[in-house]
Prior knowledge:
This protein is an alpha/beta fold and 345 residues long. It contains 10 helices and 10 strands. The strands form 2 sheets. Strands 2-1-5-10-9-6-7-8 form an 8-stranded parallel β-sheet, sandwiched between helices. It has a two-stranded antiparallel sheet with strand order 3-4. Helix 4 (88-107) packs across helix 5, helix 7 (218-236) packs parallel to helix 8 (262-280) and helix 7 packs parallel to helix 10. It binds zinc ion. Zinc ion binds at residues 161-163, 246, 248, 289-290.
Amino acid sequence: MRVGIVRDSIYLQHITDDFHPESPRRLESIYAMLANLNQVDLVYVPARPATPEEICLVHDQAYFQVVSDTKGETRRRLDPDTVTSPLSYDAACTAAGGVLELIDALLAGRIDNGFALVRPPGHHAESGRAMGFCIFNNIAIAARYAQKQQGIKRILIVDFDLHHGNGTQHSFYDDPSVLYISTHQYPFYPGTGWYDEVGEKDGKGYTINIPLSGGMGDTDYTYVFREIILPVSRLFRPEMVLVSAGFDIHRSDPLGGMAVTERGFAAMTRLLLDIAESECGGKVLFVLEGGYDTEGLTNSVKTTILELRNPPVHVNFAKNDNSGVAVTQVVARVKEVLKPCWGRV
Length: 345
Ligand SMILES: [Zn+2]
């Protein structure tokens, strides 16, 4: 499989505070790993800055102006956790634009799937404000772009970052054309993502939140994927799958309390590939969100890329793991919440 990769030195020019977990070191380490990887079937897709019109598919004009005004400024604090440096605006535009280029490459058949290795991350960014290390909502902009420019109708966004993707949820809250499913630690930053946040108006049922207590590991996550994400995706029939890939659920992550290992990320990737294979010809793109233990992040991204490169194989969905009581209770409750819209899954 040809795996499209987006990487760009501009992403290293978004400089955060000293000791800030979302630092350029994250991508420096990933890019060094990439250079040492067997390059067979890796297709480097050049990034470009997203245009103001593209960014404003999700964000409002006034907020876009606030961010563009930071260009060249030494430092601006957009949110308690989110600061800019002189080139942060360029990095943020190119983070969004990198994902758009990956979408074009995917739909033109130049790649089979892909991974946008970008920063700043995006899933907390709201239409009108930066939040939680995020400036522009890269994945939400990409979904809107795929719909408006490429005529894709139904898009599934799976967000397995440690944190709830409040910005992505709000971008599509009343919209049944984008199914947003998030697993996240709860209660935790940003405080949203409870079971009863299911969407509104026509979008009711098209936001699915799976709030998890800390300590969940590989078998818990694969159980959730198999029991909820897989069956609902089959009913939704997405034409494209986008993944907010946050590696802060890694067991070594300093911010999170989850216990996922590289094996777990491989299994989740395989399950997402399986959904994409059966529903939309394998069209799946991963977009980097969090992940703050440099070694755990780098190894997990590597594992994910190696899985994406493998030829499709059907996953064995036999229920042969020993999922804990905590996760089975969460899954049972989510299934109750899903019933009005999705029936029994
Ligand atoms: Zn996160």
